[in-house]
Amino acid sequence: MATLNEWIEGARPRTLPAAVAPVVIGTGAAFAAGQASAAAALLALLVALALQVGANYANDYSDGVRGTDERRVGPVRLVGQGLAKPADVKAAAYVCFAFAGMCGLGLAALANTFWILVLGAAAIAAAWFYTGGKKPYGYQGLGELFVFVFFGLVAVLGTQFTQALRLTGGAWFAAIGVGFLSCAILMINNIRDIPGDWAVGKKTFAVWLGDKAARGTYYIYVGAALVATVVAGLFHRGALAGVLAFVLAVPPILTTRRGAKGSDLIPVLAQTGRLTLVYGLLTGLGMAVLPQPLFG
Predict the structure, then answer these.
(1) In this structure, are residues 284 and 27 in contact, taking their beta carbons and an 8 Å threshold?
(2) How far apart are alpha carbons 286 and 241 in whole angstroms?
């Protein structure tokens, strides 16, 4: 029977900044658009966190029952390490998805935008089929696409729209920025797991690329996020505060360039998560405080 600490570790808290950052950015963008809501922001945050944890438990369950977690280095694998029954981990994922759905329903009602529930249902399906189902797309190198769309574009723009009922150019580019940083989190996670994933036929994008090219792609993701932030600043000058966060990108990039492997990449995952969280806070707060265009 897994302990409480093991269940917490199984939720993979290092990945949670990818859920928090886009909601902060979307709320800042809503404030810049002239209409923010604390209640809507809280509900959006609960949806994002529940989806992230649910996806992590679903990943743990699906990889565990397939036997693809047996060679993993890294955080606790509840099923793969035999710490919890597969049915219990699957149920935990379902509970998280159900909670996300209830919060999403409340958010849609608050904003009177019930069509957004379609996006919520798509996000839940994408979280499950990342490693679940007969042909999980995470095994085909498409994980980054899901992360970019749902933890970048959908999370930021959905948060802004449910509060301001419109979208701004700054929100679009900030969404692209946080989407790329979320992809960087996934990429470094998958670089760590390349040997084990290769051995069991799990063809993540990192496996398809190979170790060297995957590391280069990690740098590209971080660089693309920086460029997107500068462009977001043209629409809301305060978004440029997000540029300051990239000082935190130096340590993980240097460690990755030195060729760290396996468990030595775990701190890089945490550092990339920290970068994403600080980026979200600075960008969101910056847009709220200085919503004017850079050259307006």
Answers:
(1) yes
(2) 6
- 77's CB contacts (< 8 A; 6+ apart) are 10, 60, 63, 64, 69, 83
Q: For 149-188, how does the pLDDT look when each residue is reduced to its tens digit (9 = 90+)?
A: 999 999 999 999 999 999 999 999 999 999 999 999 999 9
> What integer is the mean pLDDT of 27-56?
96
Contact 189, 230 (CB under 8 A): no
pTM recorded for the entire structure: 0.93
Round to whole Å and give the CA distance between 195 and 71.
Answer: 8
Amino acid at 148: F
The DSSP secondary structure of 141-170, one letter per residue, reads T-HHHHHHIIIIIIHHHHHHHHHHSS--HH
Q: Count other C-beta atoms under 10 Å from residue 67's C-beta.
A: 11
What SS3 class is residue 202? coil
| Eight-state DSSP code of residue 248 | G
Q: What b/e readout covers 155-165, taking b as 16+ CB neighbours within 10 angstroms?
A: bbbbbbbbbbe
C-alpha radius of gyration, the chain, whole number: 18
| CB 160, CB 171: distance < 8 Å | yes
For 182-201, give one letter per residue: b (16+ CB within 10 A) or e: bbbbbbbbbbbbbebbbebe
Per-residue pLDDT band for 133 (boundaries 50, 70, 90) equals confident
Backbone angle region of 165, left / alpha / beta, with phi > 0 → left and psi within -120 to 50 → alpha: left
Q: Which two tokens stand for residue 139?
A: 């095994």
- Residue-wise burial string across 237-248, b where 16 or more C-beta atoms lie within 10 A, e elsewhere: bbbbbbbebbeb
Model confidence over 208-256: pLDDT tens digits? 999 999 999 999 999 999 999 999 999 999 999 999 999 999 999 999 9
Residue 40 pLDDT exceeds 70: yes
